[in-house]
């Protein structure tokens, strides 16, 4: 556990350390600008690429893959411009094992080079039409050529995880003998499990000189990219090739945010990363994706829900101790919450069907609202009823619920209550039938009426007014409905103004419900009860 209580993970992580081959330090190789830009639909402008590179530099990324200069003029220019920035991060360029590619990296004046060639029989046969021996010869020849220009050379055997393991090791050894200083083991098509990937990394680690840095590069086709990368680190790897937001071919690459924070929090590996810049950097890259890729609500660590709690049990425990249901503080990755722990907890509590008394109490205290016990349980019922329909109660919804509850008439003033409402609507004449329970001098009587209208609201209002006619002639002066939040599931807030024609009493009432017919009916009933109160009549039957 971290001294400052920023991190609290399982003690088991400490216990299994001895069984792992963990590096002394974790290095990060960011390929957002190269593999990340291969995300279908994503293309960054030169300005955006420069801005991303500057942010990655600030974040403390060790190596930035700025592009693949041979593939286009745009990529070449970006590589050249980023190389000129004089950043602390090493700027590396991608090249196939081909002279023309290597020369383009040299021409772009990049700090180092990343060369690759496929090694799986499938790729050799179907893509390269080369024999295994020819690949090894090429590796030897062109890495030796690159070495004339670069001291740092990273080599990737593309499709390594579907390659014959003994052959893969032979190719990697040939690369190192020819001058490669770093060996990357790509899971190009994301086709391996953490245990199997860990095994491949371990075998390479045991077969290569100890001064060779081993990198992991995992694609997310089965959602295992981060887990596979971590398995690589447990077996001798010390560099993670990742992208911000997990951008990349198909389902993307291992997300930097998750990989880095796992290595930092779970394994406490030293690294150059300023973790507090992780969230801002992710948001910057998201903003350049033009809505094509966005941070999901449930995205680990940086999603909207990553530090939010709805369940009553969780919220209560959070109030006692913030780490009870959060492994790290949001501040650790740059998500700002208040400095005040109580505030932090209150802000992070989301209301919905799992809301418990403690969470609701904390939320009301946050807003400085005092309630009676009845009001409290009324609010709770509203919140749960709304949540039961599958909606999160937003801040605006919550205010509407509060308004509704506070405007609720006390039991003794509820002369008329709704017992049943049936509405027929669609391609028929809208018809509504209401059954009201009316307190008649201490006795309860029932009144049923049906009416048609131009729509379901109109029909329901007419039916209620009809039920009420013997008691009072009502005129509807004003009717207004507002959606509290957007979307078809939004709460509807209805305000009505009615006049009692006999006494000229005018009252205003409002009600909130996710069904606009119900919010209309409830606001009308509230208004009718207010009229009865004003007129101070106690018998309905006398008027019949
Ligand atoms: O996925 C892959 O194999 C690659 C290589 C170029 C490293 O992106
Ligand atoms: Zn890749």
Largest sheet: 8 strands, parallel, barrel
Which fold name corresponds to the CATH topology of the largest domain? TIM Barrel
| Fourth CATH level, the homologous superfamily of the largest domain | Aldolase class I
Bound compounds, please? Answer: 3-methyl-2-oxobutanoic acid, zinc ion
Give me the side-by-side strand order of the main sheet: 1-2-3-4-5-6-7-8
CATH class of the largest domain: Alpha Beta
**Count of domain modules:** 3
- CATH architecture label of the largest domain: Alpha-Beta Barrel
Number of strands: 14
Mean pLDDT, as a whole number? 88
What is the SS-derived class? alpha/beta
Radius of gyration from the CA trace?
33 Å
Total helices: the number is 18
- Which word captures the global form? elongated
Distance between the termini: 76 Å
Q: In terms of topology, how is this protein built?
A:
Layout: H1 12-15, E1 27-30, H2 46-59, E2 63-67, H3 73-84, E3 90-96, H4 99-107, E4 112-118, H5 121-128, H6 132-147, E5 153-158, H7 165-178, E6 182-187, H8 194-207, E7 213-218, H9 225-233, E8 239-242, H10 256-266, H11 278-288, H12 312-320, H13 341-348, H14 357-366, H15 373-388, H16 395-406, E9 416-424, E10 431-440, E11 443-452, H17 456-468, E12 474-483, E13 492-500, E14 506-513, H18 516-535
Parallel strand pairs: 1-2, 1-8, 2-3, 3-4, 4-5, 5-6, 6-7, 7-8
Antiparallel strand pairs: 9-10, 10-11, 12-13, 13-14
The protein binds 3-methyl-2-oxobutanoic acid and zinc ion (ZN).
3-methyl-2-oxobutanoic acid is lined by residues 35, 116, 156, 158, 184, 186, 188, 217, 219.
